[in-house]
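Possible race condition, two jobs.
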Amino acid sequence: MQTIQRSIIVCSFFIVFVFTGYAQTQKYWISFDHKEINGYDYKKSLSEQTIVNRTSLNIPLIQVTDIPVTTAYKSSLSDLNISIVATSKWLNAVTAYLTSEQVEQVKALSFVTSVEPLEVYMVGASTAMDVKPELMHTALKQMKAKSFTQAGVDGSGIRIGVIDAGFYRLQEDAATKYLVEDQRILGQRDFIDPTRKDLITVAATSSDDHGRQVVRMIAGYDTSIKAQYGMAVNASFYLARTENGDREYRGEEDMWIMAMEWMDSLGIRLISTSLGYATKMDDPSDNYKQSEIDGKTARITKAAQIAFQDKGIFLTVSAGNEGDSEWRIISAPADAEGALSVGATNSMNWDRIYYSSIGPENLPYLKPNVSCFSPNGTSFSCPAVAGFVACLMKYDSTLTNVQLKEIMQRSAHLYPYGNNYIGYGIPQADRALELTKDINKDFGTATVVHCSKKVYKAQLDKSINLELVLFNKKNETIVIEPVSNSKHKIIFFDQNTTKVKKGLIKIRRTKNAARTTAVADEFMTLEIIWE
């Protein structure tokens, strides 16, 4: 691997030390049984802004998850010569590197409920770093960002948390330097190396500009050429680094959770993260199984759900870039029910771009939730949607997380006929603004028809000539995977297109299809139920 080779050249003895020590210890989550509630004062634990947020959203001010981990428990671990790496009050747990002997000692403690290994590799939600402005602008066009501009909505006053790798050269990027100049970066924190106080002008790894690209897609605006990259051009930011880019996909779930809790303490209501966890652990037997991407197994997923459900934090998450790999499905925490998981589409047909991860069939809810165009990974479709959410928050600050999520889904071009490829599709700003006034508004673009024949035919106005995207599904939401014969020739497709010429719609039923969704951008969604 390139990074390991570089490390050997610079400091070969360090590599030997790490690998030798690593064989002796393993990182674990250590969970505790209860907390010390007596004497807890929420006013000392929550910031003024957090109290304001929760009060306005009718969220309880006293929550067990806010109470710190019992000090005596941590002291007992210290007595065993165990150094705590991270502490999560939300999960009532800590992480620490333990030897096999220490594992048994910790398990024997009466207040410990579980000791679980943690060595997760990050499945990076990014396939390239060179984002071209003209391509990224397509996402704004798809989502009709102009409707927000016309309504005077630009995310001003909204504070957004970004959890990523570093944010190197944010002050030099033509599209983000205005954020630094205008003092819109309100705080930054490195959870990998707490001694680092500057995530912008100094890089810790070669991947530390990934976060900069993410911020660009939330709020990027080149003042010199008037080029807009993101929707929330007047938002402010808190930045957290929780991923070590030089360690090749290695991520730290506990650091991510700590960053979430830090942002909650600051009263942040919107967080965007382009990190995901699924596979490639040190020990293959410890890898996540696909069945464990279930919305309740991964700790990072549990934390995301706590944030949405109990803390009033709205979270946008990259679905992942494993759509063309053997893994195929989304990663954690995109599987959290409350998280707004974002996939990626093509620019013209608005169908799933090849790399975008799909939703697991075992989930009782739809994932991803929405999608938009990105040529370089869901790392950049996710923050584009986060900017959209920031504008909605600005337009109506009374919206709860549940309402915001519902509006995002209802405003999307496929609604209500979503699928596990692109969710409900691409959010539309004009529709979203209308939905803030009437969340049940019907835009009259979706139609359902029943067909008992092998071919569905319909005649529209003869002046209509367009291309329809077809999603062939085996039930209401699950797209049928493409099937090939022995010569590897695809004999039917999961998604394809058909031409409408002189207003004639002609759609043939695919084998095993219970439904087919036929879509023409935001103008028409046709749900065919085959009988």
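Job #2 (started ~2 s after job #1):
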Amino acid sequence: MKRILAHIILVVTVSTVFAQNIPVRDPHFIRDIEKSTLSLDKKAHSAIKPFYFSDYKDICADSAQYEKSFLYYGWKNDTAKKPAKFYALPVYEVFNWIMPTDRLDYRYNTHFGGLFDFSLGDKFGISYQLSTWYLDLPDYQKNYRYNYLIYNNLGMPTPWNSFMLFENDLHITFSPYTFLKLELANSRNFYGDGYRSFLLSDFASNYPYFKLETKFLSIKYSCVWALQKARFESDPLGMPMITSQNKYSVFHYLDWKIGKRLNLGLFESIILKGDYVFDFEYLNPIIFFRPVEFNLGSEDNALMGTNIRFVINEQNMLYGQFMLDDIIIGQLINDIKHNINPDYTGEYGWFANKWAAQIGYKSYDIFKLNNLDFFTEINLARPYTYSHVRVQQNYSHQGQALAHPLGANFVESVSGISYLGKRIIADAKLMYAIVGIDSTNTHFGQDIYNSTMDGNQGYPYIVNSYGNVILQGIKTQLITAKFDFGWILKENKNLSLNIGYIMRYGSAETGEKQTQNLFYFGVKSNFLKREMVY
């Protein structure tokens, strides 16, 4: 393993004389790229993110991303055989939260950082964003897991100050050929066409990984080897002992454009414990994991799934996902029989039938207004999906979900409308979800961080072998609405004044209710994406 990584780093270092690949961070360009993939004449693949300028030269130029910054430094050397470019610009966000409770509660949040991009020709690129956050976020955006404070979508604060957090986002990319991209990074990936992803989302904080990405004919293929963190309580019955452990993750995603309108994506992943040597078989970028699992006699956590996109026309598309964690067809048939006939007396609802599904619709330039876009989607996940008998092998990183932020055992509808204009940015999103949550010493399947195995496992809760259905447990309604309006101070520049409102309402069938109303105003650059609707 060490020898292979050394060879990869050596190849990347020596090959810098050839030359680029910079990720797209500007939200206007990301939107334009997504819309361009609906063209019936292109072999486009929108489900693998982030996007890179080298793949979409006809849509946007990398220099335009920096020239849109209110302040930036740029250097070019166009005389060389392989032209070099360097850009540096500030990234910032300064917000005041106003939280009306019994009294007005003011909270001040700042984020300052810098983005540094270097490219050599069209083959080699380095993109680095360093950020410092001083945070006092609303309670629902904080995650107190096993006595650790974790800011959802960002990670852990510094040990010396629970309000301060540093974030590093690094991409080192090298394309020896037009059809091949190699990347060493500390960042995130996203597989899917929707707002959510049940395969791999960017909700968790950054993690180090090596990625191989290739394109040929009508196929684009991505393979990621990642190092992530598991945090868990190793002895829930006795003296609590909080453990932090490395774990390895491997993700494969193949996207195939079939004809002019249909994209079919195939996904598989595996989560391995980090306390033993990485199995060499998993370094193969094209092998399917299930046969390897059976061959190795391994108990690692494997998932499989598919992503489908159907283009209606160049403004509208349908999309969907289906993810399998574990399943037995015979047990699935029993579930179908029970759903058709509630009086069905056979066994149904096997706890290890774990799957999730999504269906959605997205439209660009609605009402014939340029840059006015809309999406709506429905998501659902069975109980215990993404969990594992070994908690350090669940589908998470640093106490944050690698897929859906609600975990499992829920039904959700989420919709949004946005406008990205030259002077105005407006965004509205609404989520309604019903979640089956746990009561004391129970595990109904929503919390993916609990160990999942039927029978008495020595834990203070029992997982029933059968009779498990979606939304079992304490049914809880969640409504989150977010409205954001930004005025760009100078046309086509990434500097805006923003005002907004977030409402989060929760109501459990036990009678407990909670409402949070959050107003904010501030100034920011538009290179940031933080998930706040969940």
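The chain has a mean pLDDT of 85.
Logs attached separately.
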